[in-house]
Every structure is written in C-alpha cells, then in structure tokens.
# Entry
Amino acid sequence: MLGATRVTLLEISQRGALVEHSTPFVEGARLRLTFKWEGAEISRDCRVVRSRLSRSHDTDTVVYRSGLEFAKRAETGRGSGTARR
# Structure
C-alpha cells in the first residue's frame, strides 16, 4: 500500500522503490509505503519522485508507475529495510 492506494512493488533498493498502480500520484507527495517481506510488515515514509502513465491495455485499464525516494531515517530497527552500521 502507498498511503491508502494498493500498489504492486516492482523494484526496491535502500534508497527507494518503483511501484505500479491504477491512479497517478502527485509528484512531491509524501506518503507511507507498506508491504510484507518474509512475513514481516515493512513501512517506510517516502516522497513521490515521478508518476507516469506506463501502459493502457484497453480503454478500461490504465497503469501508472511511480518512483519513490525513501525518507532519511534517524534510527533504524527491525523491519526498517536498512541495516545499521
């Protein structure tokens, strides 16, 4: 989920993620990405860097892809998606 919108997580890294969804997001919007990974729920605050129409299968199906940048975290912990050094 990204905010209240269901998304499909396509790519993820320590700095951000690429998600696919059915409605566009406003660039610069700050939202929370939540997903499950190996049985644990992960949540990260992020900023929408871009949100673009990706493809349209037919007149009823529209798919957008959005690039997200994770917010910097002062502290990390279990389920944060990053390792502490």
User: Anything to note?
Assistant: Strands lie at 8-12, 16-21, 30-37, 40-58, 61-70. The two ends are 28 Å apart (CA to CA). The mean pLDDT is 85.
